[in-house]
Design brief:
The protein is an alpha/beta fold. 17% of the residues lie in helices and 29% in strands. It folds into two domains: 3-83 and 132-189 and 237-245, Hexapeptide repeat proteins (UDP N-Acetylglucosamine Acyltransferase, domain 1); 87-131, no CATH class. Helix 3 runs parallel beside helix 4 (218-229).
């Protein structure tokens, strides 16, 4: 069952460390799991699930079946993981495979209204229209305005997607991509540093645990982080699981 937003839910999320500006009646998958603090802002979510890590936010757009890491920065008008239609059937229309009415909140004053409300495709549950492909966004990813991330794509940790890009294949860690279809433009950091940054997994920690480290100088960061991390316990965020809130 989807979770429906109202003032009470927004307040509950706020108190648990989740920023949200979604309007009353907005629905989210009940398989939504969030690490606090994070921000949904105006992000719409449909489909199977949404998972978002601590210190991440997306200003707005749509996500479907997406797993989002920590420290992710997403702009507005994003389209993440939207699933496809069948391309080998007679028709690509969901009228022939969707298990619910094609359009919602329709009145009775049109031809075929009764049949429309009662209709469910004979093939529903018997034939797979398309195979669900989850979309994965690593840690510390930056996604620019109006980018489209295709279903099944993985954005590697540390990568950047330029505004307006259409990403249809996996993006390597710490690569900057842009265009339609998106291509690697350059690396964010020298290739020699990528392995060390990934191995450090610095996103396990909260910003206050890393305060004062030279984030502006990647070459110096790894040594400084290694010294700081000795004996430092990773941050354990509060986890909000919508399945536990369903019906509460």
């Amino acid at each position: 069952m989807p979770i429906t937003f109202d003032e009470a839910l927004r307040r509950r999320l706020h108190d648990a460390g989740v920023e949200c500006f979604l309007g009353d009646g907005t629905q989210y998958p009940d398989e939504t799991v969030l690490e606090a603090p994070c921000s949904l802002k105006w992000l719409q979510a449909t489909g199977f699930y949404l998972r978002m890590g601590a210190f991440s936010y997306i200003v707005g757009g749509h996500a479907c079946g997406a797993e989002i890491g920590r420290y992710v920065s997403g702009a507005a008008e994003l389209d993440i993981g939207r699933q496809s239609h069948p391309t080998t059937w007679v028709s690509t229309s969901p009228a022939f495979y969707l298990g619910e009415p094609l359009f919602s909140r329709l009145g009775p004053d049109f031809e075929g209204a009764g049949e429309y409300e009662a209709y469910r495709p004979h093939l529903y549950g018997k034939a797979e229209s398309t195979r669900f492909r989850p979309t994965t966004i690593g840690h510390d990813v930056y996604i620019g305005q109006a980018a489209r991330i295709g279903a099944g794509v993985t954005l590697g940790t540390g990568s950047i997607v330029a505004a307006g890009s259409v990403v249809v294949r996996d993006v390597p860690p710490y690569a900057i991509v842009g265009g339609n279809p998106a291509q690697v433009l350059r690396m964010r950091v020298p290739e020699a540093l990528v392995e060390g940054l990934l191995a450090s997994a610095w996103w396990r920690f909260a910003p206050w645990q890393l305060d004062g480290l030279p984030f502006h100088e990647p070459e110096r960061f790894l040594d400084a982080f290694a010294r700081r991390a000795e004996g430092l316990q990773p941050f354990q965020p509060t986890v909000i699981d919508f399945r536990a809130w369903a019906g509460a």
